[in-house]
What we know:
By secondary structure, the protein is of the alpha/beta class. It has helices at 25-31, 71-84, 103-115, 145-167, 175-189, 198-203, 207-213, 265-280, 325-340, 353-359, 371-384, 418-427, 462-472, and strands at residues 2-5, 15-21, 50-55, 58-66, 92-96, 135-139, 192-196, 221-227, 235-240, 242-246, 285-295, 307-308, 316-317, 344-349, 364-368, 388-390, 408-409, 436-440, 446-447, 456-457. Strands 7, 8, 9, 10, 11, 14, 15, 16 and 18 form a nine-stranded mixed sheet that branches. It has a six-stranded mixed sheet with strand order 1-6-5-2-4-3, covered by helices on one side. The longest helix has 23 residues, at 145-167.
Amino acid sequence: MQFKLNPKNPSSSGLRVIPVFENQVLDTLAAKNIKISVPASLFSGKKDSQYSFDSHGQVILLLGLGENPDYKTIENSFRRVLSKHASLVEKEVVLDLPGNMESSQVEAALVGFQLGAYSIGFYKKEKPKEYSKLKVEVLNELKKSKDLAERAEKIASAKMEAFKLVDLPPNKITPEHLGDWAKNLGKKLDLNVKVWDSKKAKSEKLEAFLAVGRGSAKDPRFIILEYRHPKASKHVGLVGKGVTFDTGGLNVKTQGMHHMKSDMGGAAAVLATTQLVADLGLPINLTTIVPAVENAIDKDAYLPSEVIGSHAGLSIEVIDTDAEGRLILADGLSYLIKNYSPDQVIDLATLTGSAIGTFGYECAALFTNDGSISHGLQAAGEEIGEKSWPLPIWDSYAKEMDSEIADIKNYHGKPFAGAITAAKFLQAFTHEHPAWAHLDIAGVAFSDTEFAKTKTGTAYGVSLLLRYFESIL
């Protein structure tokens, strides 16, 4: 897209998009010198409503935002323009923003508009409509419009990368592909990137990680990205679950397996966040680890009742091979903390059905041993529309993971507290780090949305982590 900001003489006769706050239709149209009466019964600016009409040969699309819209509401409203109103869009679009929109609201509008160009029709013979040459005039009264537009472009780019990493099929998004993606990002944004194969991972004693990948013909990759800023005062470590496809292993899944390309939603979130942080040049140090494997089945697949090792030195009794995400995260967390000692550690993972059973598809389950991180992530999520809610990690839950033959088992085998016991398992590998948070994003990383006919990636975590990082700087 080609953006032109605040042109003195708007010349486009293309689609004109005007956002309207609830019950401000008349004032907004008057301010835009549009002399037309819109009956309140047809359009009053309510959230998620639209109204279009012709004015002197130009199609005008009014977007209802509601009275006090949050970031996600505005983002989705503008995403609909290209996603759902493509027939109204030709070569040019005017985003005519009212003067009472705040900078964060303008950002949400610009991000959402660009996200509308995303489509999952990667392999269709008839390609989706292409918007790279679309000319977009943006009218608003903010002083730093150029900076805001550049920031919005970088956010949208990162979120679309997260979309693609989740939505593309598992024969494309393999552990090797994620490693190559990280290497390319490192070259583009000057990051230090390490990508280890199974041989190197074995020398680093990443035994739990390697056990999960044993049954796949696709060699695993242990990915490390290091972003450093000369003015950074904080160092945050991220770990993202990167199971590029999950059969369940020998405890094979009995339903929904075709959705398991999404089991690297945590990896997609932390990789895209790393891209965004580096692209924006945030004054923070960031170390990101993605253990990337495919959990498949063959003669070498790891077995229920096996006892395996781990980077932390703890032995693990494998009760269920479908509880594989916590095994690779255990090694990722341990390696990160032991070798980098970050001030804060946050992991994101599509980890348990239990989290969905508790919260449905509305928010992530949050587990942390640090109150400031808990409050910070919740507040950031409320602001940005990527919510989380805390669950306890009391020590009394740890006994559920006791093993008689090993130091710990990977699954308690009971139909309750599954998300909590999974979090307690992970905590055992954090070397008592005092500021760790785990986000179980099983219900929010891959979801039914209005923008596709099937479940798709949501990029949950990218905007959340950006807002959280900026709040602690």
